[in-house]
Design goal:
- By secondary structure, the protein is α/β, with parallel strands linked by helices.
- The protein has a single domain, classed as Rossmann fold, CATH 3.40.50.720.
- The chain contains 8 helices and 7 strands.
- The two termini are 33 Å apart.
Length: 254
């Protein structure tokens, strides 16, 4: 294997939820690997703006709420207008919420499913069209270890169900499009240091339980998830299709 297989030179990537955490780390690494990147999020951050300033020729940002039914057409069209192609989609945007199942409201359920499943479905549906025209492409959907297990101590049936749906969507998409040159895989992180997990990490009880249930006895870094996403998106994973890559410090081993 040549290290050049991990390069993304000449490729264009669309990354959702790219203003912080794992999404921002993926954008940073993809740019270093040579890709042009269209980054989307609902809001800007200082870290995002710094990345855009230092990669003004290769990176663009567009404000988008992925739950807006018009967002997929908008962000895919902007990507094609800016860079002339769309080779890689990273469906990263997501939210989390928890609470007792019997008290979980319809509004909470609708928000989780709209962001974590319906939006990635719609965005992939639109992004795959230019890939089909080119006969090649790679899609990385963001799943979670929560799609495999019941987490503790937090109760989050809706979130876990949305991520399990992403895993199954990935499997089925991969089957459908493999013969047309498009690979579809998912990444399932464990507990990663990010805005999404900040509250739990700061909670002494949750922190202790999460750490004790992770054999490596630590939380993951966004940069470590970016490494996994780069592998799945690059030619280094040319024979990887329909897989859900678990990166969880060993959480699922017991």
């Amino acid at each position: 294997m040549s290290l050049s297989q991990f390069r993304l030179d000449g490729k264009t990537a669309l990354i959702t939820g790219a203003n912080r955490g794992i999404g921002l780390a993926i954008a940073e690494l993809f740019l270093k690997a040579g890709a042009h990147c269209m980054l989307t999020s609902r809001s800007e951050t200082s870290a995002l703006n710094a990345l855009l300033d230092s990669n003004s020729q290769k990176a663009r940002w567009i404000s988008a709420d992925v739950t807006d039914v018009q967002a997929p057409d908008k962000i895919v069209a902007e990507t094609l207008n800016a860079f002339g192609a769309l080779d890689i989609l990273v469906n990263n945007a997501g939210i989390a919420d928890n609470g007792d199942f019997h008290n979980f409201s319809d509004s909470q359920l609708d928000s989780i499913l709209a962001t974590n499943f319906t939006a990635p479905f719609r965005i992939a549906r639109e992004a795959i069209k230019p890939m089909l025209s080119r006969g090649s492409g790679a899609i990385v959907n963001m799943g979670s270890i929560s799609g495999f297990v019941a987490n503790k101590p937090q109760l989050q049936v809706a979130y876990n169900s949305s991520k399990a749906a992403i895993h199954q969507m990935t499997t089925t998409m991969a089957f459908e499009y493999a013969s047309r040159g498009i690979r579809v895989n998912a990444l399932a992180p464990g507990y990663i240091i990010s805005d999404m997990t900040a509250g739990g990490i700061e909670n002494a009880e949750w922190n202790k339980i999460w750490t004790e249930n992770t054999p490596m006895q630590r939380f993951g870094k966004p940069s470590e998830m970016a490494n996994c996403a780069l592998f799945l998106a690059s030619d280094a994973a040319s024979y990887v299709n329909g897989a859900t890559l678990v990166a969880d410090g060993g959480y699922l081993t017991h």
